[in-house]
Amino acid sequence: MKNLIIIVSLLVFSVPFVQARITDGKVQLSLKDQALSIKVDQGYHLNKDAPAKLIDLSSNKEILPINKNTDEFIFSINELKAKEITLEYYVCDNKNTTCEQHKENYGIENNLLTFHAPPSEVSEQLKSLASGKVILNNHHFITDNLEEGKTKAAKEKKLLFVDFSAPWCPACLRLETEVFGKKTFQDKTKNLIKVTLNKDLEINKESYKKYKVTVIPTMIIMKADGTELYRIIDFRETKDLVSDISKAVKNSKKNKTYDEYLVLAGNGDKDAIKHLAMRAYDMYDHKEALTWFKKLGEDSLFSASAEINSEEKDSSKNLIDSYKKYIVKYPESFDSIVWRNELVKFLQAPVATELTPESRALLQENILLINKAFKNKKFQKKIFNETAQGLFTNFESEELYSKLIEVYVLMKEKPSELASILMLQEKISKHSLSAERTGEVLIAIDYMKDAKMNADVEKWFILLMKKNPTSDLYPRKLARFYSKEKNYSKALPIALQAVKLSSKYLFWSYVILAQVQKESNLLAEAKATAIMALDMPEAKDDNNKEYVNQLKSIIL
Fold first, then answer.
1. pLDDT digits over 429-485, tens only?
2. 307: Cβ–Cβ under 8 A, 6 or more apart, which residues?
3. Is residue 64 over pLDDT 60?
4. Does the domain at residues 2-130 carry the CATH identifier 2.40.50?
5. What does the DSSP 8-state code read for residue 115?
6. From the CB of residue 42, how many other CB atoms can be counted at a distance below 10 Å?
7. What is the CATH number of domain 470-556?
8. Torsion of CA 353, 354, 356, 362, to 10 degrees
9. 191 three-state secondary structure
10. From 73-87, 172-186, 212-226, 389-403, the region with the lowest mean pLDDT
11. 142-255 belongs to CATH 3.40.30.10
12. Are 243 and 237 in contact (CB under 8 A)?
């Protein structure tokens, strides 16, 4: 195989595929010097954020690009053993109105690279395209193309269900693996045009901006013209999500648009004001939410949380006053447990050797309230149903144990802390976790860390890596975990693996690798990695200042 590649001179050709799609015939492949190159015509670009790979059909081994830019992908094929390969990649037009997957077979034989797409595969693809069908994911969602969804919804006179998510988001993954594939969900949403939009893809940024999506997962039911009718935040179990969707669809003609709610709220309509307050709260715009809650003139856990979250963290007096006020007002809420722990941290700042009587009393109140929630399941259900702190579906007890551990850490009561850790370990062990339910595992891992279950954390990250061998998410998370545990000998190879697999998230993989190399005393390598990271577009994003400062400190 190596000799063949040395002999082959530059061979360039266009993909010989029937012109059924916009990007068909816009691709050129070249084979030269042990490398296979993919380029596209002017007006198009390769989607470097989407998956791309070459598959050796003799061994099913996947080869990732050694170079992945919008103008060219390059695959090293010096170790290729097969005479047949499959190439998978995405091509988009430069207006980002279309982004299409290419999956084609090629043969390398007699010094030639030839197109070998199976006739049956081609005919099925053409049949699908001719019928007007769009490319769907495993759960029948149109992928990363809202305009396509709107066109289809208008044509079929249906509503849209749009899922705003990301592949690294645990709650999003829970929806993917625990809800969207369920028959109940599929049956109840069969008359909706479903679309999923990856937060990290450039082509979706305008949609995220337009709909002010600041938290994921966010699910929006829309009219065919894109008008928002109903918004759902966070993970929901199948029955709950289906119930919300069914109500929204049933009332779709009665549901008002955002602008209509603004008009009603301006006229003093309390239902409209409450809707706008909760909408802003769900979008994590706590200052806007607080403005609406004040106009509503009704106190609630949500208005209290909006006020607390609106206070500047460095304005400790206002924040402390807000904590104290709402702990008194809602003393038996889950929120008050969170607030007491946070208040003690402020009261003890910067460092105090002994707890003040006030702090100790607050923590004692939390111990009593948490134990009440353990003993009284109805009470536990009530405080989690009412909380403004988010959803903890199937992990409510774990969250309480986590807060109890935090209490004993603040009190410096080691025996009680260890006893609580053991109880949390026991609770986690009762979960029937599976690598098939990725999001649930990621949430469980966070509690495993609180419970000092390091061996289990490692085990589950490795299982997730095996289950998702082309994903850079899990090696990146495992490398970060090893690094925090100062186990740099294990962190280094995993961090390198994350870099090898990374596409959209290469910048963050570089950040982790540079830190691990630095701690491993590989200073020259760390500096080189940091320089590469700082040369990336992400380093110019103000949201990444913290990471940029870390990288600069390595170079200095």
1. 999 999 999 999 999 999 999 999 999 999 999 999 999 898 899 999 999 999 999
2. 286, 290, 293, 322, 326
3. yes
4. no
5. E
6. 7
7. 1.25.40.10
8. 110
9. coil
10. 73-87
11. yes
12. no
